[in-house]
Amino acid sequence: MKTLEEVFETWEAVIGLEIHAELTTLETKMFCGCKLEFGAAPNTHTCPVCLGLPGALPVPNRAAIESIVLAGLATNCDIEKHSMFYRKNYMYPDMAKNFQTTQGPIAFCMRGHLDLDVDGRGAAERYRLDALAPGERDGNITRTEDGYVAHVGITRIHMEEDAGKMVHLGGGEGRIAGATHSLVDYNRAGTPLIELVTEPDLRTPEEARLFMQKLRQIYLAIGISDCSMEEGSLRCDGNVSLRRRGTTAFGTKTELKNMNSFKNLHDGLAYEICRQAEVLEEGGVIYQETRHWDPSAKRTIVMRVKETADDYRLFPEPDLAPYDLTDEFIEGVRAKLPELPDQKAARYAADFGLTSYDARHLVEHRATADFFDECMALAAAEADGGAFAKPLANLIINDVTAWLNAHEGEALAATPLSAARAVALVKLTVADVISSKQAKEVFAAIMDEDADPEAIVEARGMKQVSDTDAIEAVVDEVIAANPDEVARYRDGNDKLIGFFVGQCMKAMRGQGNPKIINELLAKKLG
Amino acid sequence: MVTPFGSMSIGELQAGLTAKEFSAAEVARGTFERIEAADGVVHSFLETTEALALDAAARIDGAIAEGRLAEMGPLAGVPVGYKDNLNLTGTHTTCASNMLRDYVSPYTATCVERTLRAGALPIGKLNMDEFAFGGSTETSAFGPTRNPWDTERVPGGSSGGSAAAVAAGLVPVSLGSDTGGSIRQPGSFCGLVAVKPTYGVVSRYGVVAFGSSLDQVGPFARSVEDAALVLNAIAGRDALDCTSQPSDVDFTANLAEGVRGMKVGVVPAFLEAAGLAPEVRAKTQEAALALEKMGAELVEVELPHAQAAMSAYYVLGPCEAFSNLARFDSVRYGYCDPGHKDLGSQYEASRARGFGPEARRRIMLGSYLLSAGVYDTYYYPAQQVRTLITRDFAVAYESVDCILAPVAPRTAFKLGEIGDPTEMYLGDMFTISINIAGNGGMSVPVGLGADTGLPVGVQLIAPPFKDANMFRAAAALETVYGPAPVAPDYADGKVGA
Amino acid sequence: MTQHLSEADVRGIAEYTRIGLTAEEVVAMTADLNAIIDSLAPITEFDLDGVEPTFHPIGDLSNVMRDDAVRGSFTQAVALENAPKQESGSFLIPSILGEGGDR
Question: Does the domain spanning A468-525 belong to CATH 3.40.50.720?
Answer without folding.
Answer: no
